[in-house]
Amino acid sequence: MRNPGGDGPAGARAGLKLRLPGPSDPPSRVRIGEAALGLCEVADEHHVRMMNRLLPAIPAQRGAGRTEAAAKEAGPEDLAEPLPEA
Question: Which of 25, 37, 41, 75 has its CA 20 to 30 A from that of 2?
Fold first, then answer.
């Protein structure tokens, strides 16, 4: 603009610039990065809550409750699953 003093709506545009796209300090790259990290934290907390809620409902593998000594005493016939009958 050749004559900035004659720009009546300059103040209104400056206010809109701050309100609509957001402030220029910190830069948008920093604000978006912080927002993404915040979302990651929320997602991690949600993941932990879901694992704690679902983990007891998932059955353990067969033999998972056996002790190491009991596993050593077991013979091969105890560990093999029976074949389906034809």
Answer: 25
The residue assigned the tokens 């998972």 is 64
| Residue that is written with structure tokens 């402030």 in the block | 23
Q: Tell me: the pLDDT tens digits for 31-50?
A: 899 999 999 999 999 999 98
* CB atoms closer than 10 angstroms to residue 31: 13
Separation CA 47–CA 41 (nearest Å): 10
3-state secondary structure of 49: helix
Q: What's the CA gap between 62 and 78, in Å, rounded?
A: 12
pTM greater than the 0.85 cutoff: no
Q: What contacts 74, CB < 8 A, 6 or more positions away? A: 66
